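Margin note: ligand = IPE.
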Amino acid sequence: MTQILEDNNIKLSQDNIPSHIAVIMDGNGRWAKKRGLPRVAGHKEGMNNVKTIAIKASKLGVKVLTLYAFSTENWGRPSTEVNFLMKLPIDFFGVFMPELMQNNIRVFATGILDDVPEKTRNIIIKAIDETKNNTGMILNFAFNYGGRADILEATKRIVKKIQNDELVIDDIDESLFSKNLLTNTLKGFSDPDLLIRTSGETRISNFMLWQMAYTEMIFEDILWPDYSPENLVEDIYKFQNRDRRFGKLN
Ligand code: IPE
Ligand code: IPE
Ligand code: MG
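Resulting structure:
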């Protein structure tokens, strides 16, 4: 078993790096409030941290890093905040694209992009296109994503295929259902191995409900803008010490 010693004196086993890590990046608003700043200042700081954590994850050998950036429920926030969050991808790719390229990172998005403003959608599609030949980690943004919406849309797609005589009811199994979810683009890595949620909340908030059936979960009290590469190493270490049984006995 190859072990690599990280900066914070933690030995990570190279053979057991979680392939797909999903993060609920929570606590931006509280981070700003603590400093007497407007909530959006927390989102800006959170955006900068996305780059830091993505580069660390890619160096550690993570295959897919999914970041929950905007949920289908976040539309219910005040419009000034929603508008700011919708513009963040434009800033993010505008500033960090060269570093993503240098790190061979490939951008993906999982979410209902049809419903996001055109300019934002186009920027995301452009980033996906510009990084399509990169062969390193997939940085997957869950943007306008909701677990229930994902399951409902998959159901509709399957029903439509039955109506068109492309499928019969008995064809529906877990594998077929998974293939009709938005995460299908992640191919063999659609289900997260590890979920990390920052900010101390211990809930899923409509994230990948189907995909997380057997995901290991870690809830950290740290607010997302403060979550550091050392924290990521610690969480992967915790993951490596979990016993994933998948319902079996060892
Ligand atoms: C997470 O931070 C980012 C998004 C939901 C877009 P929050 O904005 O939820 O921050 P808190 O939870 O209010 O502190
Ligand atoms: C979850 O955080 C969504 C994202 C991080 C994008 P929220 O802050 O929206 O979740 P709740 O409201 O605390 O459940
Ligand atoms: Mg929150």
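The radius of gyration is 18 Å.
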